[in-house]
Amino acid sequence: MEVVVLITGCSSGIGLRLAVQLASDPLKRFHVIATMRNLSKKGKLEEAAGATLNKTLHIAQLDVCYDESVTQCLSSIQAGRVDIVVNNAGVGKIGPVESLSIEEMKTIFETNLFGVVRMIKALLPDMKKRQSGHIVVMSSVIGLQGVVFNDVYAASKFAIEGFCESLAVQLLKFNIYVSMIEPGPVNTEFEMKLMEEVSQSEFPGADPVTVQYFKDVYLPASHDIFMTMGQTPDAIAQVFMISMERPVFRYQTNVLYTPLIAMKYADNTGNLSVRTFYNLLFNHGTMFKISLTLLRIITCNCFRSGEISPN
Ligand SMILES: NC(=O)C1=CN([C@@H]2O[C@H](COP(=O)(O)OP(=O)(O)OC[C@H]3O[C@@H](n4cnc5c(N)ncnc54)[C@H](OP(=O)(O)O)[C@@H]3O)[C@@H](O)[C@H]2O)C=CC1
Ligand SMILES: CC1=C(/C=C/C(C)=C/C=C/C(C)=C/C=O)C(C)(C)CCC1
């Protein structure tokens, strides 16, 4: 029997590539329901899907922020079940916290936290009845380790990490697996969308010094990080393929991040992480370049190779 996989946020990036990779499985093991909130954006996926379109890959509308949209999509599934759900839909947010309204922050949580929770709640009763299922969440390294000027995004990813870490224990009793995929930077439309948003903002409420750190120190450093550490969406999709065989809870996709996250557990005062990130950012320039070179050496030059860290 084919495995029914529903993926959210397939109009671009990781969701799109994952849908295509699964649908192109030579053994045709998967029936992929590739969902997106806005069907007028389906052209890119249709093109990438090629001959798999309407065979192993079906496109459907689903906005994770609306109950009716989720219910309607799930009730239209012909197989009558979802074996694997990939909660991929997500939005980023960067900038000085003083310039972001609480309303803006809530929209990030609506998607990155409550959108995932809504999907899980809708699918759990059936998965529990069938005593089978795999819930995958596209989290982030920023769900494990905060990054400066990503305060709200980090909070939303930390929140879904906490939710899933708690839920995973209960669900094991029902033979349902939960997995978090935790990529570092990935070269998708994600960064461009953030840059576009930032270019239109005048950062109301933020003082000039903070705005200057954000624009002149953080943004170039972050861009460097995407250029040097960024993985391809196909590399992230590969990690998912591996996760299906024998699911574990966490998949950190980027070995370069492992030492940065390990600092948190090496010093429980938190000083090591906070000070290291401070130095990496504000001594950007020589220190930053040296750090990247060191990371390159420590991790056997796996930059941009898409290599994954085995758990
Ligand atoms: N790129 C990166 O560096 C990293 C990304 N991630 C995570 O990976 C996931 C995918 O991001 P990525 O592919 O990079 O970025 P993209 O911006 O390319 O894709 C995000 C997708 O989510 C969709 N989406 C946003 N809001 C909703 C919603 N309410 N309902 C349904 N779909 C929605 C977007 O649709 P639309 O086109 O309509 O906006 C789009 O299809 C996100 O959860 C992100 O947080 C994690 C680590 C790093
Ligand atoms: C590592 C690092 C930085 C930036 C990291 C970034 C920008 C990571 C982005 C990750 C993303 C986009 C995850 C998505 O979920 C700084 C602060 C520039 C300098 C210090 C070291």
TrEMBL record:
<keyword id="KW-0560">Oxidoreductase</keyword>
<keyword id="KW-0521">NADP</keyword>
<feature type="binding site">
    <location>
        <position position="140"/>
    </location>
    <ligand>
        <name>substrate</name>
    </ligand>
</feature>
<comment type="function">
    <text>Retinol dehydrogenase with a clear preference for NADP. Converts all-trans-retinal to all-trans-retinol. May play a role in the regeneration of visual pigment at high light intensity.</text>
</comment>
<keyword id="KW-0443">Lipid metabolism</keyword>
<dbReference type="GO" id="GO:0006703">
    <property type="term" value="P:estrogen biosynthetic process"/>
</dbReference>
<feature type="binding site">
    <location>
        <position position="157"/>
    </location>
    <ligand>
        <name>NADP(+)</name>
    </ligand>
</feature>
<keyword id="KW-0716">Sensory transduction</keyword>
<protein>
    <recommendedName>
        <fullName>Retinol dehydrogenase</fullName>
        <ecNumber>1.1.1.300</ecNumber>
    </recommendedName>
</protein>
<dbReference type="GO" id="GO:0005829">
    <property type="term" value="C:cytosol"/>
</dbReference>
<dbReference type="Pfam" id="PF00106">
    <property type="entry name" value="adh_short"/>
</dbReference>
<dbReference type="InterPro" id="IPR002347">
    <property type="entry name" value="SDR_fam"/>
</dbReference>
<dbReference type="GO" id="GO:0052650">
    <property type="term" value="F:all-trans-retinol dehydrogenase (NADP+) activity"/>
</dbReference>
<feature type="active site" description="Proton acceptor">
    <location>
        <position position="153"/>
    </location>
</feature>
<keyword id="KW-0472">Membrane</keyword>
<dbReference type="GO" id="GO:0016020">
    <property type="term" value="C:membrane"/>
</dbReference>
<dbReference type="GO" id="GO:0004745">
    <property type="term" value="F:all-trans-retinol dehydrogenase (NAD+) activity"/>
</dbReference>
<comment type="similarity">
    <text>Belongs to the short-chain dehydrogenases/reductases (SDR) family.</text>
</comment>
<dbReference type="InterPro" id="IPR020904">
    <property type="entry name" value="Sc_DH/Rdtase_CS"/>
</dbReference>
<dbReference type="InterPro" id="IPR011348">
    <property type="entry name" value="17beta_DH"/>
</dbReference>
<dbReference type="InterPro" id="IPR036291">
    <property type="entry name" value="NAD(P)-bd_dom_sf"/>
</dbReference>
<feature type="binding site">
    <location>
        <begin position="9"/>
        <end position="37"/>
    </location>
    <ligand>
        <name>NADP(+)</name>
    </ligand>
</feature>
<dbReference type="GO" id="GO:0004303">
    <property type="term" value="F:estradiol 17-beta-dehydrogenase [NAD(P)+] activity"/>
</dbReference>
<feature type="binding site">
    <location>
        <position position="63"/>
    </location>
    <ligand>
        <name>NADP(+)</name>
    </ligand>
</feature>
